[in-house]
Design goal:
With 86 residues, this protein is α+β, with helices and mostly antiparallel strands. The protein is built from two helices and four strands, in the order ββββαα. The strands form two sheets. The protein has a two-stranded antiparallel sheet with strand order 1-4.
Length: 86
């Protein structure tokens, strides 16, 4: 690994392959995770799924409660400023 001093504390590098099937279309998504979480390899899948659930719930809340997806503010500092106001 390049610049190993930047990787101090990393316990695992995890590759997750997801194959979602939506509307008769199959795609393949590959994601990599770096973690300093010290657990058995068989438990990392559960940890990743739990984290994804929290992220998905947060994004759903932001969209439904604050209508973030409907907002058309896209340039300069405006998106960050609007997010702070919300």
């Amino acid at each position: 690994m390049h610049n190993q001093h930047n990787w101090v504390g990393v316990k695992w590098v995890v590759m997750v392959v997801r194959v979602p099937h939506l509307c008769n279309q199959t795609t393949r998504e590959v994601q990599f995770y770096l973690t300093s979480f010290n657990c058995a390899p068989r438990n990392l899948g559960q940890v990743i799924r739990l984290h994804s659930g929290v992220e998905n719930g947060l994004h759903w809340t932001l969209d439904v409660t604050f209508s973030e997806d409907a907002c058309r503010v896209r340039t300069a500092h405006a998106p960050e400023n609007f997010a702070l106001l919300r």
